[in-house]
Fold:
Amino acid sequence: ALSTPLPIAAAIVILIVNLGPAALTGIGVFLLVVVMFAIPAVLFMKYRKKSAIYTDKRIETMREVLNGMKMIKFHAWEDPYQKKIYEERTKESHYIFKCEWLTNLMYGAVFNLPLTSSMTTFLVFYAIGSESGSPGGIFASLALYNALTLVIAEFPMHLGYCTSASVSLERVREYLEAPVEDKKTEENIEAVDEKIDIKLANGEFEWETFEDNEKSNKFGLRNINLSISKGEFVVISGPTGSGKSSLLHAISGGIKKTNGTVFINGSSIFYGMPWIQSASIRENILFGLKFDPIF
Structure:
């Protein structure tokens, strides 16, 4: 990359020596096309970032489908999930197509640049009635225009690599600059009874999403007040999607707390997914312990 200006400068000097001032027109066309590459380059970076967003959404949906295949089949949700995946893939393909279109446009401009530059130069060369050119100089000039083009021939490919690297580094930067998740529960609730193990006061929690639309509605819990005493057995019931698991995540610190206080006296264990051993019902209940019929 550091040696790139040297052949460009040498080619420009030799062109001016061979063809005189007329060579400046072809060089001007060459430089104009190179500068105009900034427009598709900016659009390419914009579309690449958009496609990465929809790629993440599609992968997230596919991961959700694979992890919850049993529930999807049980509730016959195949068609809605298929529609959702198709929509995300369509949006992703739309921006990928735009990126490929811009890449092909730049490749077309690059490979037509020697012809355009040399044609412009020779038209001006004969229009001004210059007689300084010789067949050797003209053929040498054609080769020099091809050499100039070879310098930027791989620009579209390098642009794609640099854009992908820029998007990846930006996502790594966002990850590294994200606030540290603090799962420690607060212990500053005033007048907490020693008999109380878990207490939530005016708690507000929400699931964090990574949507590009900042105004998107975030699912969460509002105005949660809960007090559980020592030795108390509590059952949380409700329909699917009512927030039972979210409440457990809120107590354990698994979702973002936006307001309120949480107090846990001691340690807590949270397991949201039922797990069954590939064994008999008795072995699943005993879990390795010796069977005691009297118990």
User: Anything to note?
Assistant: Strands lie at 196-206, 220-229, 256-264. The chain is about 60% helix and 10% strand.
